[in-house]
Design goal:
- The chain has 1683 residues and is of the alpha+beta class.
- Among the domains are: 136 residues, no CATH class; 122 residues; 170 residues, no CATH class; 65 residues; 170 residues; 83 residues, no CATH class.
- The protein is built from 54 helices and 34 strands.
- The strands form ten sheets. Strands 1-28-27-26 form a four-stranded antiparallel sheet. A four-stranded antiparallel sheet has the order 2-3-4-5, covered by helices on one side.
- The longest helix is centred in the C-terminal third of the chain and has 45 residues.
- 39% of the residues are buried.
- The N terminus and C terminus are likely disordered.
Length: 1683
């Protein structure tokens, strides 16, 4: 049969000939042209070449080579050549040529690789003023006033905390680098051969894959772009450049009819007849399968090589669902929708070289055949190694096979091995309908035989791929590894030498790999991709001929990338040398992966380090080493061919779109990405760094081109830099020359005359934005290249020529201030300073001066400006760095200091005088003007500190060694000069320091002037200078050392040297501190007489200034470390007066004077709350001291007790613990010392006797629940605490007596105290505790009667009494609130509280004595309760008789309210009894109910008869006088009893219902679980291994001789085989039983039942086997799981 795809329209194939590059533009003469002409060529019109003819394709195993350029290139080509092709990795060049793909033709007037050019340069990404700031610096606006505010001044003021102070808060400056270095991607290693797609034109479309908006790309540019960069006209920063294979696409896609005109070409007819594309494979050739069963094969010249297939195969096998290309590109394997697989040789495409037809389930079940079932789709195909006839395949039912398609005696011999999957259930398969032959490509109608009922885990293969052979050898190549990915696992299978599973992995149940949610067991989609072994970096290439001779090329380890859900995982195959002798020479090591933003739909390798990831919205480029995304390109999945192959295997509740497959439409080859879309086939290449820069070389984005090139030079890493070397030096060698040429070309473009005249710069704002942005961009580029001179030699010259140098200066100033640009030519620095001077921005000019290198400063201009405007920072910088004069700044500043000193000295005499009354210069200066210069005058100390330490002022940059020595020599010689000097030295004016004109100059005038101005600041500068090694070394020209400096300071500041008392005591104190602190630091350089040291020490101690106490004490400690005074007692006395407690503690601890040591802790205000810890330490140290010392120490502490209790919030508690631990015999004395406050005494004793309740006294005290009461408190103090407790907290007396271990409850003195304090409840409690229950109740009756009479008396006579509330000092009010009564209450309330307390104790006695082991024998329980209730009834009746309950606020009658319309309030009758308060009434009303509640809840009816008790109470009431009879109380008693009974009954009923309901639910659950039964997990008995189901499984099984012996030996734990004899079996058959083991012989009466036992875990036994096993093992009886 003729080939149905022969196309008569295909021209005859001429001989191969060189083809012009698709990059070629129109021929242009380049001999004589300026820059504008070149730029016009870049932005001008280009025409594409016509489509050439193609020759016959004969594949030779290699790809196309890069053609040479035939014609002279235009400017665009020159720019491309400028950027070069060095970004492409060097590859082996093939020996033959082929035709490359054509570039898409574009209409004239367009630039093929960019969108329309913007109208003006305003759209440049660097055109906004805010983008010129140097990275890492704050944005500096155009306003110079904002520049002034953004950079603070640098005046140096008097140090608030100097080095002479005891505590220095000077913080070290920390410098953190804000620069980061990112390594580039390593140079990729590729397989041999160069693809023709490497020539994808730079003029190809750089738009998004499906023409999406530019903003949809998420590739991050190296620097932030301005808003103009996102406007239309800026090329999108995509990762790929895409080219449509137009000729190839036109042959496989039917053209769209336009205007109603039908298509008539033969190619269009051919495209329609063969069907639409379904799958694609690319490897040396492009193979495209169609929906009608054909496969079209194209070469890389887009020529149709052949069409594989026949009419019969197309009709019988269905659509093509899988395509694979062999390793040598000569065979194509094709899988169809109905299960057939065909292998075609490209030389004979019309007839399959091998075929694997589908089989049926019946043949599989009979064991006659293996393979895919008829109707199942072949989803994945792959060739094993270099063989043509070894393939692997998988289908949509989860079956995967290895096919060895050989021949035996010229006949086909196919060996098939099933690698994964199970065949469907025969029963369900037999009822399934046959598959349809419909060629629909969506997969919905392409169903084969229905698979078996879906299990919990879907059975399908999401992806499969064999490990391809790479250009380098690896040990894994010999195993023919195949990776299979299912929804539940990844399996790597090795086919050689024997099939086995090498490695497996499962998805994590975290919701990332299993999108069904956390806990889901499978994933709905998954993909994988292999990277083969390639030659290692640095390995010498081996020629093909040497490979054939057996040469081995060392290769890298292959890798497998796979993904479930959103997580990508990596596995590396390493060579296992240790296990190689065992046949295991490959080790699988899983590396760290990453999680993508969206679902992973495809994985393809670019090289061994970079991988492409297809997601629903993007094509991402990832670096597997850093696991970071380095590129992203937007895509639209709706335009890519997809297949719904897997949705039927999953839950139908999820949309089928979640399971679409895109793997067959997403292919890579030779670093090119192929996409099969619904309208065409596209090839994409990563946009290289040179391509990206070239795309930005246009008016709107010139600055962006410079910026991105600069970022690449500095190490920026993205997808475009993959081809750049990783080594920074090598990268710089490639990129830096390109950046320099781009800078030059951009400069020529911006300042070209044509651009300035053609109207593009007509907008002033656009012009200024472009020129401003160019400066910042070029500065950053020049800093990256290290060529700052270009800025001023070329760039500044262009700005100056065009009269816009002010823009340049304004935009470069931030870089100057940041220190990035400091070498400004003198003309530039002059102009920059002059601009600020003209604007009056003198502070800005000052900052410019000291940020510019000194050799580039115009000294005359700077000096005049600084002296006129008093810019001392810049003035010092010019003197020291430009003129190398280090004395001149001192002369300038000392003159200012002298003026201030003269003004301050005369200021008191001028109060009230006229301004013109003084004749000298100082009189004409106002006080405000003089004092305003003080901050400038203090700069002299900052200058001294930095200059004497070898630093430059004000930048603090280190000076060179020679210059630092020169500066120190000059400053020391001038500052410590003994007489007045002149400037200049010969014939100059003397430098005066005296306050009066014409007066004599004192010795050492300049040092004296600074010390008089601020001694502390001067000495602080010298203290810093003392640490320099300059004063140690023997340096020529040095006139001073530390000894000489100290001597001069002592001489100048001595009283004899300053008779006018120019120095204050604080000045001399700082001198003493300076000397005392430096003497022990430099003992080898400084030596003073003992009398001088003694004078210094005395001076430190005699100063009464409290602000310097710590400083003087620290200095004294330094001095004492190297000097010991002779008169120690006098010095100690001075230290005591000075408050040098640290020194005193050291002395006293050494002399073991413990009392004095404790006194220092008690007097030191800095100790604070730590005083208790120090006192404990002191008391521990004094344990071995003499008794006298101990008494002195105790007396010292006791004297301080009043202050100790106020040391902190827990001071009283800490004091009690301290005394109780170390001074327990002094408790009485402590209490006596606290006699001024009864509250303190009470709190102190509570901390000792009831520490668990001491927290109630203070809410901030430490928890004390774990402290036990003290046992060291004597009885008098305990009784005193009891008395205080009766006064302050009488309700807690019983608690204390009950817990007291000293037996106070039996002490008559304690009871007397309670009785005197009227704490009757404690008395009653104590009597009952002694066993006198009857006497206690008698006392209750008596007390209740007395208290009732007292209450009635107070109510009848309206006696108003005030409660006596003890008033303490203000500091005790907080403690008082913790235990005292918080408000004054009426006398009736206090009496009722006593009655309630007595009643409470009486109720407790009745409860305890009426039943239980403590029942009293003197009285019955009924008598006890009768007496108590009678007393309570009498009390309540008596009170209610004269004081009824007060009305509630809502029940008050109208007589107690304001009458309507009246102006008076009606009052009660004054003769009526005073009613009780609400509190008192509630207390009285609760007496009887409380007693009844205790009676009912604690006493049973056997102990007390409630009816008898009520009857006795009523009879007792009847015997009382008629006037006193009242039954209201009894009504309450009966009602309370009945309510109690009703409540208890309701409670019991509710409890019964709840428990019954719970019991019913549990019983019901147990019943249901019991009736469920257990599911069997197998078919054989666990003991005898025989089947339990079927005809042979009824009852006990027939057992063979060997099986029974094995069972018995296993059961008995025997080591040898026993002798056997014949015995009847359980069912009449013979069974071998061991001889002599009668225990195993079946007994007639215990014949095992016939049944089956099922365990909870699903195991099965014959009932007889289980009984036998249990009896042998001594197990417990079992429960039958089922019969």
């Amino acid at each position: 049969m003729d080939d149905p795809v022969e196309d008569s329209s295909v021209p005859s194939s001429p001989p191969p000939q060189p083809i012009a590059s698709p990059f070629r533009e129109e021929e242009e003469e380049q001999a004589t042209h300026d820059y504008s002409t070149q730029l016009d060529q870049v932005l001008g019109n280009d025409d594409d070449d016509d489509e050439e003819g193609f020759g016959e394709f004969i594949y030779s195993g290699v790809d196309v080579e890069r053609p040479e350029e035939d014609k002279e290139a235009g400017y665009g080509e020159q720019l491309a050549e400028l950027l070069g092709t060095t970004h492409e990795p060097a590859e082996e060049q093939p020996s033959e040529t082929a035709v490359p793909l054509e570039a898409p033709s574009l209409p004239k007037g367009t630039f093929s690789h960019v969108p329309p050019v913007p109208a003006s340069p305003s759209q440049s990404a660097r055109s906004t003023p805010s983008d010129d700031t140097f990275p890492g610096l704050p944005s500096i606006s155009n306003s110079y006033q904002q520049q002034l505010s953004s950079s603070p001044r640098r005046p140096s003021y008097h140090p608030q905390i100097s080095r002479l102070r005891s505590i220095s808060t000077q913080q070290q400056q920390r410098f953190v680098s804000n620069s980061s270095y990112s390594t580039a991607l390593e140079h990729p290693a590729d397989s041999p051969g160069t693809s023709g797609f490497d020539l994808a034109s730079r003029r190809s479309s750089t738009s998004n894959l499906f023409d999406l908006p530019p903003g949809s790309s998420d590739l991050v540019t190296p620097t932030p772009s301005s808003p103009a960069a996102t406007e239309a006209g800026k090329p999108p920063s995509d990762t790929f450049k895409w080219s449509v294979l137009r000729r190839l696409s036109s042959r496989i896609y039917p053209p769209i009819s336009k205007g109603g005109v039908g298509f008539t070409s033969a190619s269009a007819t051919q495209a329609g007849l063969l069907g639409v594309p379904t799958v694609m494979a690319v490897s040396g050739v492009v193979a495209v399968g169609t929906s009608k069963g054909w496969v079209m094969v194209f070469d890389f010249g887009q020529n149709l090589r052949c069409v594989c297939g026949t009419e019969a195969i197309a009709k019988e096998a269905g659509p093509v669902t899988a395509v694979a290309i062999s390793q040598d590109h000569t065979f194509v394997a094709v899988g169809h929708a109905l299960g057939a697989i065909h292998l075609y040789a490209l030389l004979q495409p019309t007839k399959p070289a091998r075929s694997v037809p589908p089989t049926t389930l019946q043949l599989v079940l009979t064991g006659r055949k293996e393979g895919h079932l008829a109707g199942s789709r072949i989803l994945h195909l792959g060739f094993i190694g270099a063989r043509h006839t070894a393939i692997v395949s998988s289908d949509d039912t989860g079956l995967a096979f290895y096919h060895s398609l050989g021949k035996v005696l010229m006949l086909a011999s196919t060996d098939i091995i099933r690698m994964l999957g199970r065949y469907p259930d025969p029963h369900s398969a037999s009822q399934s309908p046959r598959a349809s032959n419909s060629p629909v490509i969506d997969g919905a109608a392409l169903n084969g035989e229905a698979r078996s009922a879906k299990s919990k885990k879907p059975s399908t293969i999401l992806d499969m791929a064999p490990l391809p052979l790479g250009p380098a050898h690896h040990s894994s190549d010999s195993h023919s590894l195949v990776a299979l990915l299912t929804p539940t696992k990844l399996v790597i299978v090795g086919l050689k030498p024997t099939p086995r599973t090498w490695w497996r992995a499962t998805p994590a149940k975290d919701g990332i790999e299993t999108p069904g949610g956390t806990g889901s067991e499978y994933s709905r989609n998954g993909v994988l991709s292999w990277w083969p072994s390639v030659a290692k970096d640095g390995a010498a290439p081996v020629a093909a001929a040497s490979k054939e001779k057996g040469a081995v090329v060392p290769g890298e380890d292959p890798m497998l990338a796979f993904a479930w859900g959103r997580r990508v995982r990596l596995v590396k195959l390493r060579k296992d040398v240790q296990s190689a002798d065992k046949g295991v020479d490959v080790e699988f090591a899983e590396g760290e992966g990453w999680v993508c933003d969206h679902m992973v739909l495809g994985l393809r390798w670019y090289n061994s380090r970079v991988i492409f990831v297809l997601t629903p919205h993007h094509v991402d480029v990832f670096d597997i080493v850093t696991r970071e995304r380095i590129g992203r390109d937007s895509n639209d999945l709706h335009g890519i061919v997809s297949h719904d192959y897997y949705s039927s295997a999953f839950d139908a509740s999820r949309p089928s779109s979640d399971s679409l497959s895109y793997s067959a439409s997403f292919v890579t080859h030779k670093k090119k990405l192929f996409l099969l879309t619904l309208t065409d086939i596209r090839v994409g290449a990563i946009l290289s760094w040179a391509d990206r820069i070239l795309a930005l070389m246009q008016p709107g984005t010139i600055l962006d081109a410079i910026e991105i090139t600069t970022s690449y030079l500095l190490g920026q890493v993205d997808a475009s830099t993959i081809a750049l070397p990783e080594d920074p030096v090598e990268r710089r060698e490639i990129v830096e020359p390109k950046l320099r040429e781009i800078l030059g070309a951009s400069l020529e473009f911006v300042f070209s005359e044509d651009r300035l005249r053609d109207g593009s710069h007509s907008d002033a704002a656009t012009m200024q934005a472009l020129f401003e942005g160019l400066v910042g961009t070029c500065v950053r580029a020049c800093l990256a290249t290290g060529d700052v001179d270009w800025l001023f030699d070329d760039l500044y010259e262009r700005y100056e020529q065009n009269g816009i140098e002010a823009i340049f200066l304004e935009r470069i100033e931030p870089f100057v201030l940041s220190g990035s640009v400091h070498a400004l030519p003198p003309s530039v620095s002059q102009r920059l300073i002059a601009i600020h001077e003209e604007r009056g921005q003198f502070e800005a000019a000052q900052r410019i001066i000291w940020h510019v290198d000194p050799e580039f400063i115009d000294i005359n201009q700077a000096l005049k400006l600084c002296q006129r405007e008093k810019l001392y920072d810049a003035l010092i910088y010019v003197y020291t760095r430009s003129m190398h004069d280090f004395v001149a700044p001192l002369v300038e500043l000392l003159a200012l200091v002298r003026k201030i000193q003269r003004h301050r000295k005369r200021r008191p005499r001028r109060i009230g005088d006229d301004e013109g009354s003084e004749a000298d210069e100082g009189a004409s200066i106002s006080a405000q003007d003089v004092e305003a210069t003080v901050p400038d005058a203090y700069k002299v100390f900052a200058y001294l500190s930095q200059a004497l330490t070898g630093l430059s002022y004000p930048s603090k940059e280190p000076l060179s060694y020679e210059e630092g020595v020169k500066a120190r020599n000059a400053i020391y010689a001038f500052l410590f000069s003994g007489s007045t000097l002149s400037r200049p030295e010969r014939g100059g004016q003397p430098i005066l320091t005296s306050d009066e004109d014409g007066s004599d100059e004192p010795p050492y005038p300049y040092l004296r002037l600074l010390l008089r101005f601020d001694a502390e600041a001067t000495l602080d500068s010298l203290d810093l200078a003392f640490e320099e090694s300059y004063l140690d070394d023997d340096i020529p020209g040095k006139t001073l050392d530390r000894q000489r400096v100290v001597d001069l300071l002592l001489e100048v500041m001595s009283a004899a040297s300053s008779p006018d008392d120019a120095f204050s005591p604080i000045d001399r104190t700082f001198l003493h501190i300076f000397v005392a602190r430096n003497l022990p630091k430099y003992p080898q350089y400084i030596s003073l007489r003992p009398d001088v040291l003694h004078q210094i020490l005395v001076g430190l101690a005699e100063d009464l200034d409290q602000s310097t106490t710590d400083d003087r004490q620290l200095a004294a400690e330094y001095l004492l470390s190297s000097y010991t005074p002779s008169d120690s007692d006098a010095i100690i006395a001075l230290f005591e007066r000075a408050g040098f407690f640290r020194i005193l503690r050291s002395i006293y601890r050494g002399e073991r004077r413990w009392a004095a040591l404790a006194s220092t802790y008690l007097r030191d205000p800095d100790v604070g709350a730590d005083v208790f810890a120090f006192l404990r330490e002191t008391l521990k140290l004094a344990t071995k001291a003499s008794e006298k010392q101990k008494e002195e120490l105790a007396e010292t502490i006791l004297e301080a007790v009043p202050s100790l209790v106020q040391a902190d919030e827990a001071g009283l508690q800490q004091t009690a613990e301290l005394v109780d631990s170390y001074l327990p015999s002094h408790h009485a004395e402590v209490i006596e010392r606290l006699s001024s406050s009864a509250w303190r005494q009470f709190a102190y004793l509570r901390c000792l006797l009831e520490p668990a309740f001491s927290d109630d006294l203070s809410s901030t005290s430490a928890p004390s629940k774990d402290r036990a009461p003290s046992t060291r408190v004597d009885t008098p103090q305990r009784l005193q605490y009891l008395s205080l407790l009766c006064t302050h907290e009488p309700e807690h007396v019983i608690r204390y007596l009950d817990a007291d271990n000293a037996g106070l409850a039996n002490d008559q003195a304690a009871l007397k105290i309670c009785e005197e304090a009227e704490v009757y409840d404690a008395l009653v409690w104590a009597m009952d505790r002694k066993g006198e229950t009857k006497a206690a109740l008698d006392r209750v009756d008596e007390t209740l009667e007395l208290r009732t009479d007292l209450l009635l008396e107070k109510l009848l006579h309206r006696e108003q009494e005030e409660l006596i509330v003890e008033e303490e000092e203000d500091d005790e009010e907080r403690g008082e609130r913790g235990f005292a009564r918080r408000e004054a209450t009426a006398p009736a309330d206090a009496v009722l509280d006593q009655i309630a307390a007595i009643s409470k104790v009486a109720v407790q006695i009745c409860v305890k004595r009426s039943s239980g082991p403590e029942r009293t024998k003197d009285m019955s329980g009924e008598d006890l309760w009768f007496r108590l209730l009678s007393s309570l009834v009498s009390t309540v009746r008596a009170v209610r008789a004269i004081a009824p309950a007060p009305p509630r606020p809502s029940d008050r009658s109208s007589s107690h309210r304001r009458t309507s319309g009246a102006s008076i309030i009606l009052h009660d009758d004054p003769d009526e009894p005073q009613p009780l308060s609400l509190h008192a009434s509630d207390t009285l009303s609760s007496l009887i109910p409380t007693a009844l509640s205790s009676l009912v809840s604690t006493t049973s009816s056997r102990d007390v008869s409630f009816p008898n008790l009520v009857r006795r109470l009523i009879e007792s009431n009847a015997r009382s006088p008629a006037a006193d009879r009242s039954y209201a109380e009894f009504k309450a008693i009966v009602t309370s009893m009945l309510d109690t009974y009703v409540f208890e009954g309701d409670l019991l009923s509710l409890t019964s219902k709840v428990s019954s309901q719970d019991l019913f639910e549990h019983v019901e659950i147990l019943k249901v679980e019991r009736e469920k039964g257990w599911r069997a997990g197998g078919e054989c008995c666990e003991d005898c291994a025989q089947p339990v189901w079927g005809p042979q499984g009824q009852g006990s099984p027939p057992m063979t001789r060997s099986a029974s012996v094995d069972m018995v030996v296993k059961t008995m734990g025997m080591t040898g085989r026993p002798r056997m004899k014949k015995r009847p079996s359980l069912k009449g058959k013979e069974v071998d039983w061991p001889e002599g083991e009668s225990a195993f012989a079946p007994q007639p009466v215990l014949a095992p039942p016939r049944g089956i036992v099922i365990g909870r875990d699903g195991r099965l036994w014959h009932e007889g086997c289980r009984l036998l096993s249990l009896s042998a093992g001594g197990g417990q009886p079992y429960r039958m799981g089922g019969r």
